[in-house]
């Protein structure tokens, strides 16, 4: 994080947020909520800068000095305790508080006020996991670490949508999946995580226990358990086989709604995995048998010995930043600091001595849990409630009980950073607290990592840290001596005294000084290592050394009395409330990726609100009964109602609906889904059952007409072959046209194809490239979505052939072609010939595949398409064009080097009549520099004069490396070749290890560094197999032939690094050429990336950086042709002074009216980074009006980040200003693509 002085006050404010690449948890990655935190911290509207006191119920709260409000709160609390006893007071605290504040809240409640009523919002999320861990392993918390993600062979994700709710962990998991690990996802909703799964189990809600027992039963039946581990480290196994016999696959299938084969496959995958780990969260925890779910998962790990070793173990995923720390501090139920409990006499004695209390001060009775606490408040038994850093009016199940409790209480104190929360509306006293950057604080995450958040900005007004406000109130209550801390560091030093050798909880080696250097992971003994990923190691360091009766010392010692982990037979039971005739559907709730909890913070970030703009209810089509997307429906239960727009989708199972829980009273009426949820609780953990309650749907708004799902043209009436293409850059389209001519068949983009065209007796030929990580190109995305939908028709009787065109440098080479092949087969179609996968430059196999196909289908004789190979200015016959313009567009000292290149094609225009069009690309055939070739030959020990054969012709190795092979590109094939031949096992393990680690090492390195760092001695012929061919680089043309018919112009960012010793092959090749040097170039036509044909059509262009190139051409073209349509350009870069390319041209276009709007986003010129998508969002209403008027939208530039962010922003704009659901917005975009009104040139 970087700060800057505020222009008005000089106080530090956040200027930039970036991930800490050295942090062991995220390695620098940020989710959208982290990435937008500077915007959040700048949103000061509604921040509490002073206390508020309500003179009387019904009056408006009055700003009050904090010390006066503290005195008011303490005086009223003292009066209630004196009059009614300590249990008339309750504290309700949060997993978002610092560990210091959590500790002090427990100390005040259990040591000094002596009330049993201290509860936390962790009761709503992690209580079942914590209770289950205690029952099975002896103490709370996962036994492993996030480091297990990097070495496991199998992820078993159950009841967790990690992609949305734990996106950074999901990315870490995705890295491991790319390295070969497998993924099982168990979820009643087809989430983004489920879409990545090798095995997705769409389980019936509330039947997880049956599945877990059934999997373990199969492991036992097949002898796939670890008997040695069971004998050495566990107890209770003797009753399990008989218990598990009640869960044969047939019964489990009937209970869960899963196929027997899938249950067996899940068991087999676990059995075959060398290491496996389970990940779960609310889907298992928020249940009336949530504790048993954790027990059952632990049973699976214990039975297979997959626990307390790298890559294996149960990993419960905590959602709040310090819910783990709060559980360690004992802030709910029987807990005491250091994983102790009031139920244990030794624990009470230890804590009483630590706090200087008389023996017997700490009570042995335990509070009834969150739900019962608010019930007792509503009944009048609890008179006062102090709520810190949480919003129970929105977040507690059956929230009406909370409202009734707060209304009945004599005193409600809240402590928050913002004024306008659903809960603050019921407060008598509001105390102003700080946010994370405004005070020092320690947080503890799911895998026990302690991070010190260091103060970097000032609190607003009189706001104080939570720990300090607790101390202030405690002092005003008369307990000042025990709460006399000058800093949070002093509080933390007191916490370090609570080492627990029974459970291994150990912070003795942690301190603020040490945490300022790096995070640490407990157990951390004095002088212990920073990272301690495995718990329960029987080493006598942080926990008492255990020796068996026979004198042997086991490797592990769990925190149970026997020091053995415990098996618990846990039978399947139904949820507390099942659907019936009155309420026939099951409601499930959850989170969205870009909002968090009750939106107290994220609801203030415009970028996040655009990504997740509003609530909705997902309904399966079988249950929709005429309800359409966007239509408002009432969802009611026996407890309450909400009214939400519908999303009709197959993501949810029939008989179930799903609603995100973020929205509440602050955003509007009838939005709080916890008005519906069931407050029945797990008898052990006291956690309520949010995940299953019976509801009824009733439409309350008019139907919304759905957009067309398929192209509007009639079905094709032909019977002969149909050629379909999908292409991002034009290569696949161009070759598909050649195939269509050869076969005499119609040609169509995939998105223009109706599924009705794929009729029995028809031959379909599909030619496609791949975009992104195995996905379809833009003009094939809608076809792929329709083909992959559950309602896609049977293709029995259809015959097909698939050709994939790609680049072997990418990991998922021709991935979309493979996906098409598999899906067509699954739908019943039969192959004409086998799929081929070729590189775009490799003409011979492409032509061979087309000839084979023509021979089968009776097309033209098996020969290259006549005349095509001879056409000049094409890929197969490039022309030599002198480089006549090499102009530096960036000033000296700029971080980027951007140049305008011009190529003189006048001789070829005269000789062959060639031309180009605005929107086309120019292909450049580069060559490797002499210095790069020398470096490569020196590293490999080969002779430049050695003879090799390239494309059937002999040449020297030096010439081949210069002209034919890409020696600088790092590909999966190169990494594998070097790993296999370098002779260094450690180097081979690194190169074959997690791709994310290799990618980090490769930053600012290329293939020359690979061969230098990992020497390989191999024959030249072997290297020819390992290297990819040097392929043309294509650049968007930035001139119009109407203005510059004889000079083709490009706008190119020149890539240089390592002080210029390394660089991009093509960009540096061009940049370093003397003027007048002939360069081999060819035209890559892009017939679908053209300015609007209608002279009056509006045009919106989004092209930051060198993405401006085609739009300069578009604007030149429209001016030259006299087109009258309005034009709007979104452009930007890092700095206005350095990256405002073609500034004079663009400003003249604005001045003369050609550009109606020019919106600029220079990201680094202000504290908060601003990109083109932010500018689009700012003008969302106007963009929607332009689209509604028929505007064409074009995007050019980076595919990985910019294009995706722009696409997401467009979806949000369409949804918000077009007043439609997200699903309908996606359909609207697909219609734009089909109509050629949303076109992208991204790379």
Automatic annotation (TrEMBL):
Reactions performed catalytically: hydrogen sulfide + 3 NADP(+) + 3 H2O = sulfite + 3 NADPH + 4 H(+)
Positions of the FAD-binding FR-type domain: 876-1092
Entry superkingdom: Bacteria
PROSITE patterns, per the entry: 4FE4S_MOW_BIS_MGD, FAD_FR, FLAVODOXIN_LIKE
Cofactor entry: FMN; [4Fe-4S] cluster; Mo-bis(molybdopterin guanine dinucleotide); FAD
UniProt EC number: 1.8.1.2
GO CC annotation terms, alphabetical: membrane
Classification via Pfam families: FAD_binding_1 (PF00667), Flavodoxin_1 (PF00258), Molybdop_Fe4S4 (PF04879), Molybdopterin (PF00384), Molydop_binding (PF01568), NAD_binding_1 (PF00175)
GO biological process, one term: nitrate assimilation
Segments forming domain Flavodoxin-like: 721-854
Top-level enzyme category: oxidoreductase
UniProt keywords, alphabetically: 4Fe-4S, FAD, Flavoprotein, FMN, Iron, Iron-sulfur, Metal-binding, Molybdenum, NADP, Nitrate assimilation, Oxidoreductase
UniProt GO MF annotations: 4 iron, 4 sulfur cluster binding; FMN binding; metal ion binding; molybdopterin cofactor binding; sulfite reductase (NADPH) activity
UniProt-listed InterPro entries: Asp_de-COase-like_dom_sf, CT_Nitrate-R-NapA-like, CysJ-like_FAD-binding, FAD-bd_FR_type, Flavdoxin-like, Flavodoxin/NO_synth, Flavoprot_Pyr_Nucl_cyt_Rdtase, Flavoprotein-like_sf
CDD domains: MopB_CT_Nitrate-R-NapA-like, MopB_Nitrate-R-NapA-like, SiR
Residue span(s) of domain 4Fe-4S Mo/W bis-MGD-type: 1-45
This protein's record includes keyword NADP: yes
Assigned protein family: Belongs to the prokaryotic molybdopterin-containing oxidoreductase family. NasA/NapA/NarB subfamily.
Name of the protein: assimilatory sulfite reductase (NADPH)
Source species: Mycolicibacterium murale
């Amino acid at each position: 994080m970087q700060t800057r002085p505020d222009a008005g006050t000089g106080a530090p404010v956040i200027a930039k947020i970036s991930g800490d690449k050295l942090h062991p948890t995220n390695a620098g990655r940020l989710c959208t909520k982290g990435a937008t935190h500077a915007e959040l911290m700048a949103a000061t509207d509604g921040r509490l800068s002073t206390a508020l006191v309500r003179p009387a119920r019904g009056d408006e709260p009055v700003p009050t000095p904090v010390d006066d409000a503290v005195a008011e709160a303490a005086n009223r609390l003292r009066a209630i305790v004196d009059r009614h006893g300590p249990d008339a007071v309750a504290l309700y605290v949060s997993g978002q508080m610092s560990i210091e504040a959590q500790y002090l809240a427990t100390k005040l409640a259990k040591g000094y006020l002596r009330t049993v009523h201290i509860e936390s919002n962790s009761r709503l999320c992690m209580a079942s996991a914590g209770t289950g861990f205690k029952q099975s392993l002896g103490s709370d918390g996962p036994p492993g670490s996030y480091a297990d993600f990097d070495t496991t062979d199998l992820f078993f994700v159950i009841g967790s949508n990690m992609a949305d709710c734990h996106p950074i962990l999901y990315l870490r998991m995705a890295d491991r999946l790319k390295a070969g690990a497998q993924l099982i996802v168990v979820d009643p909703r087809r989430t983004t995580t489920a879409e990545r799964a090798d095995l997705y189990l769409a389980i019936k809600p509330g039947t997880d226990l049956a599945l877990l027992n059934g999997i373990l039963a199969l492991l036992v039946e097949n002898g796939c358990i670890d008997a040695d581990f069971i004998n050495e480290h566990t107890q209770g196994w003797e009753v399990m086989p008989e218990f598990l016999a009640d869960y044969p696959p047939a019964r489990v299938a009937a209970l869960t709604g899963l196929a027997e084969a899938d249950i067996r496959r899940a068991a087999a995958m676990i059995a075959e995995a060398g290491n496996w780990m389970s990940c779960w969260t609310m889907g298992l925890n928020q249940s009336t048998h949530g504790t048993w779910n954790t027990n059952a998962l632990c049973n699976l790990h214990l039975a297979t010995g997959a626990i307390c070793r790298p890559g294996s173990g149960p990993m419960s995923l905590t959602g709040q930043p310090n819910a783990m720390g709060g559980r360690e501090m004992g802030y709910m139920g029987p807990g005491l600091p250091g994983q102790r409990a009031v139920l244990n006499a030794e624990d009470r004695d230890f804590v009483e001595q630590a706090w200087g209390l008389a023996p017997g001060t700490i009570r042995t009775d335990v509070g009834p849990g969150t739900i019962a606490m608010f019930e007792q408040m509503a009944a009048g038994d609890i008179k006062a409630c102090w709520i810190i850093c949480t919003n129970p009016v929105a977040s507690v199940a059956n929230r009406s009980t909370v409202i009734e409790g707060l209304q009945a209480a004599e005193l409600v104190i809240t402590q928050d950073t913002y004024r306008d929360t659903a809960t603050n509306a019921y407060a008598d006293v509001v105390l102003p607290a700080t946010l994370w950057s405004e005070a020092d604080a320690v947080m503890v995450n799911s895998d026990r990592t302690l991070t010190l958040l260091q103060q970097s900005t000032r609190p607003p007004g009189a706001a104080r840290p939570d720990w300090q406000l607790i101390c202030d109130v405690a002092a005003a209550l008369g307990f000042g001596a025990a709460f006399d801390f000058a800093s949070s560091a002093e509080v933390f030093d007191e916490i370090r005294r609570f080492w627990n050798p029974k459970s291994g909880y150990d912070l003795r080696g942690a301190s603020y000084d040490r945490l300022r250097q790096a995070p640490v992971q407990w157990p951390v003994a004095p002088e212990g290592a920073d990272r301690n990923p495995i718990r329960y190691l029987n080493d006598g360091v942080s926990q008492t050394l255990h020796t068996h009766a026979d004198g042997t010392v086991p490797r592990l010692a769990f925190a149970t009395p026997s020091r053995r982990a415990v098996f618990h037979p846990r039978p399947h039971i139904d949820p507390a409330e099942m659907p019936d005739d009155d309420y026939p559907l099951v409601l499930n709730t959850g989170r969205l990726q870009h909002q968090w909890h009750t939106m107290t913070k994220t609801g203030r970030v415009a970028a996040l609100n655009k990504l997740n703009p509003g609530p909705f209810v997902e309904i399966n089509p079988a249950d929709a009964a005429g309800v359409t997307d966007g239509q408002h429906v009432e969802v009611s239960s026996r407890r309450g109602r909400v009214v939400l727009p519908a999303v009709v989708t197959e993501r949810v199972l029939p008989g179930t609906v799903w609603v995100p829980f973020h929205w509440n009273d602050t955003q509007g009426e009838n939005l709080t889904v916890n008005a519906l949820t069931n407050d029945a609780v797990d008898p052990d953990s006291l956690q309520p059952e949010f995940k299953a309650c019976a509801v009824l749907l009733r439409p309350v708004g008019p139907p919304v007409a759905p957009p067309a799902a398929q192209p509007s043209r009639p079905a094709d009436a032909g019977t002969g072959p149909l050629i379909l293409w999908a292409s991002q850059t034009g290569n696949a389209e161009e070759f598909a046209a050649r195939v269509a001519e050869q076969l005499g068949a119609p040609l169509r983009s995939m998105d223009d194809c109706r599924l009705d065209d794929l009729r029995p007796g028809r031959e379909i030929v599909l030619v496609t490239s791949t975009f992104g990580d195995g996905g379809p190109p833009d003009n094939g995305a809608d076809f792929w979505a329709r083909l992959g939908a559950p309602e896609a028709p049977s293709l029995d009787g259809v015959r097909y052939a698939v050709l994939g065109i790609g680049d072997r440098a990418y990991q998922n080479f021709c991935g979309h072609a493979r996906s098409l092949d598999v899906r067509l087969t699954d739908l019943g179609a039969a192959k004409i010939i086998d799929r081929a996968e070729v590189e775009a430059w490799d003409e011979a196999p492409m032509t061979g595949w087309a000839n084979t196909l023509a021979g089968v289908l009776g097309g033209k004789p098996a020969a290259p398409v006549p005349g095509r190979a001879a056409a000049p200015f094409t890929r197969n016959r490039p022309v030599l064009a002198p480089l006549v313009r090499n102009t530096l567009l960036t000033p000296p000292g700029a971080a980027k080097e951007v140049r305008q290149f011009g190529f003189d094609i006048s001789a070829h225009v005269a000789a062959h009549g060639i031309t180009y069009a605005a929107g086309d690309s120019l292909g450049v055939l580069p060559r490797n520099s002499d210095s790069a070739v020398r470096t490569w030959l020196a590293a490999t020990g080969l002779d430049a004069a050695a003879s090799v054969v390239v494309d059937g012709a002999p040449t020297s190795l030096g010439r081949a490396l210069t002209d034919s092979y890409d020696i600088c590109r790092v590909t999966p094939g190169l990494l594998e070749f070097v790993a296999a031949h370098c002779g260094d096992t450690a180097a081979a393990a690194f190169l074959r290890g997690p791709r994310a680690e290799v990618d980090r090492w490769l930053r600012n390195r290329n293939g020359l560094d690979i061969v230098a760092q990992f020497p390989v001695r191999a024959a030249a012929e072997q290297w020819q197999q390992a290297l990819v061919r040097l392929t043309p680089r294509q650049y968007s043309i930035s001139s119009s032939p109407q203005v510059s018919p004889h000079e083709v112009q490009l706008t190119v960012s020149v890539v240089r690094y390592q002080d210029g010793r390394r660089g991009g092959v093509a960009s540096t090749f061009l940049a370093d050429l003397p003027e007048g040097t002939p360069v081999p170039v060819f035209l890559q036509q892009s017939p679908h990336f053209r300015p609007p044909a209608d002279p009056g059509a509006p045009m919106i262009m989004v092209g930051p950086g060198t993405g401006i190139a085609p739009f300069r051409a578009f604007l030149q073209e429209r001016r030259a042709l006299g087109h009258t349509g309005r034009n709007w350009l979104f452009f930007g870069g890092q700095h206005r002074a350095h990256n405002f390319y073609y500034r004079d041209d663009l400003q003249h276009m604005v001045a003369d009216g050609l550009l109606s709007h020019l919106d600029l986003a220079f990201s680094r010129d202000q504290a908060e980074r601003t990109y083109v998508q932010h500018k689009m969002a700012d003008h969302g209403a106007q963009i929607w009006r332009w689209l509604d008027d028929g505007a064409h939208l074009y995007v050019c530039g980076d595919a990985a980040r910019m294009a995706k962010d722009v696409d997401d922003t467009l979806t949000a704009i369409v949804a918000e200003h077009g007043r439609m659901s997200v699903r309908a917005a996606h359909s609207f975009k697909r219609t734009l693509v089909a109509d050629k009104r949303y076109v992208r040139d991204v790379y």
